[in-house]
Amino acid sequence: MRPLRSLLFVPGNRPDMIQKALQQPADALIFDLEDSVPAVEKETARSQIAELLKDIMPPKGQQVYVRINSLVSGLAEADLKAVVGPRLDGITLPKPSSAQDIHRAEGMIEALERERGVEVGKIKIAAWIETAKSIVNVFEIASASPRISAIAFGADDYTLDMGIVRSEQGIELIYPRTITAIAGMAAGVIPLDTPYVNFRDEAGLIEDTKWSRQMGFKGRCLIHPSQVEPVNRLFTPSPEEVEHARRVLAAFQEAEARGSAATSVDGKLVDVPVAERAKRLLELAEAIAQKETLAASGEQPRP
Questions:
Q1: Residues 22 and 59 sit within 8 Å (Cβ to Cβ)
Q2: Does the structure show a pLDDT above 80 at 194?
């Protein structure tokens, strides 16, 4: 699975911002047709994104997602008709309440894939977990379809639905963030954290993203280009982590060759879970390195 450390939102009605976003090394771009686009601009944004997707070749190898409007808005079907095509990697679906919502969106996408000669199943779904019902049904949503590539927690809509105010400390978000990360990993999809909304506060972004990674998130959505570099860095294994993981894996493999299922590195136990964690970290580091090498060469990564 391709890394999704950083997903940069871009309003679909702002061609100037779209062009700037294409130059950012985010792992994915999300062209937005929902909250960042005023109602009077929806049709314009839809047309602009449809035109862009006809021949888009992201120069940094970014995946291309579109956030459509919610199923209950009455706009989702028109959004999908405008954007589904061979250049689209996926859509992000706002406010699904259950697996039934995923299946409904999937049915519309599959019909358009067949109609337009797109490989069935190519277009993925990243589902937003941003209501009380979606938190209750988060694993059901995350495991509803092979199309689900990720689930993303949305704090602002969640706090709105709960009738609470989002605090600076974020205590009210500990449970929904944690359960979203757990459900994503349990379902085998990428869990993504909520955007950090104070885009001028880099120190706060860094601290919050460290917590995000510790909770089990593998990436997060972003609202400003300045957030891409620090978030990419924080969700990328450091050289020290890679070197340590290599030593751990080598030591464990040597122990296995001696008939033992445990050893130690730097005075700490290395058993099966520790070795597996090291293996996964190295696989992630390799996937990121391959993605960045391809992006630097101008080639498009394979799905």
A1: yes
A2: yes
